Amino acid sequence: MLEKFFHLSDAHTTVKRELIAALTTFVSLSYILFVNPNILHAAGINKGAAFTVTAIATAVGCFLMGLIANYPIALAPTLGSAAFFAYNVCVGMGISWETALASVLVASILFILITVLKLREKVVDAIPQDLKYAISAGIGLFIAFIGLQNGQIIVDNKSSLVGLGSFNNPAIWITLFGLILTVILMAAKVPGSIFIGMIVTAGFGIAIGQISMPHGFISTPPSIAPTFGQAIFHLKDINTAQLWMVVVTFLLVTFFDTAGTLIGMTQQAGMVNKDGKIPHIGKAFLSDSLAMVEGSILGTAPLGTSVESSAGIAMGGRTGLTAIFVGIFFLIAMIFSPLLAVIPTTVTAPALIIVGVLMAGNLKYINWDKFEIAFPSFLVVVGMPLTYSISDGLALGMIAYPITMIAAKRYKEVSPMMYILFVLFIIFFLITNMG
């Protein structure tokens, strides 16, 4: 039955491989269960409810992606959207979290409309193959940068923005231990090396006293009553130009964020056709649109394509069965939440760094000897980690591409959609980066 529904043989995978891939994605993404509630709490949302909502919303999102699109990609609340929700909208603009959730719901409904009209599909198909490779590589560098930061190898530096972390910090040794171990396992081509590396690293952290043993094994999930349905109840509050601008901003940020991430993940999984098109991407877009709706009704910031899915893809995940397993793990995690405390970001950091290396391999496919291609591709690649945003990095390259192609007298090769995107991305920057 699983073979027939998910076409495992066609994807050259097995149930065991999909399960290991899902475990790897889940362990890499499990931090969202604790980080997302902390961010949403700054907006005034009950932290306990946010924990349970994060788990349920992620599980439903994964089920949607697995069943509708058959992609090995997890859908979860994105930290960028959560931070915008809490710090920009609720704290910065003084908008209540209930009204902010209503804004997310409206943006989600508009998202579905755009998806049904196949506008998102047309946008992705219009992006040149070189830029798609750049997007994948850029996400790889972004993921690696997050891993280096989470592992405290790279830290804030007042004089140079970033710098090397202190080796007096015990946390950095957990990351370095895990990184060296995983690199050795990967080089030796040991199956399941990323997942093995995380488990052994967690054990190492406990052994040196830097990771505490869990105080229990099972706990009752907190109630979602404080947040459930608030988005629907407060739809009537969206009655000012400012709030409609919030809706549009949520729409733009999630549109470009998920488009960029989906391109990167499918490129990594080898799902892109020779003509540069991604099979069934319309179904994937529908999945994340529906996930945004259910997430807002449950009570969380916008869901999107999780970059941590790349860890599972690196372990061989190729079908929606991986996403289904990830969703099941998140439901289980609601009652085993004390155990997740032994997987801090220092344990998952090496996995993200390794995955970044794997995704950076797409750089070799970019036509670097043509400056009109090289420059926008370069902006995408460096823009994502340096702006700490997939959508901003994507925008930089998309704005530069028509300019360089026109200058090179290759404007006829630029599709009409790319010129439309050029204008849209300028508007996107004006809306999201003014003030």
TrEMBL record:
Pfam families membership: Xan_ur_permease (PF00860)
Record localization: Cell membrane
One Gene Ontology term, aspect cellular component: plasma membrane
MF (Gene Ontology): purine nucleobase transmembrane transporter activity
Protein's membrane topology: Multi-pass membrane protein
Family annotation (InterPro entries): Azg-like (IPR045018), Azg-like_bact_archaea (IPR026033), NCS2 (IPR006043)
Domain of life of the organism encoding this protein: Bacteria
Keyword set, alphabetical order: Cell membrane, Membrane, Transmembrane, Transmembrane helix, Transport
Membrane-spanning segments: 20-43, 49-68, 101-119, 131-150, 170-188, 195-213, 243-264, 320-341, 347-366, 378-404, 416-434
Family statement drawn from the similarity comment of this UniProt entry: Belongs to the nucleobase:cation symporter-2 (NCS2) (TC 2.A.40) family. Azg-like subfamily.
PANTHER family reported in the protein's UniProt record: GUANINE_HYPOXANTHINE PERMEASE PBUG, XANTHINE/URACIL PERMEASE C887.17-RELATED
Protein name: Xanthine/uracil/vitamin C permease
Organism ancestry: Bacteria, Bacillati, Bacillota, Bacilli, Lactobacillales
Gene (UniProt): azgA
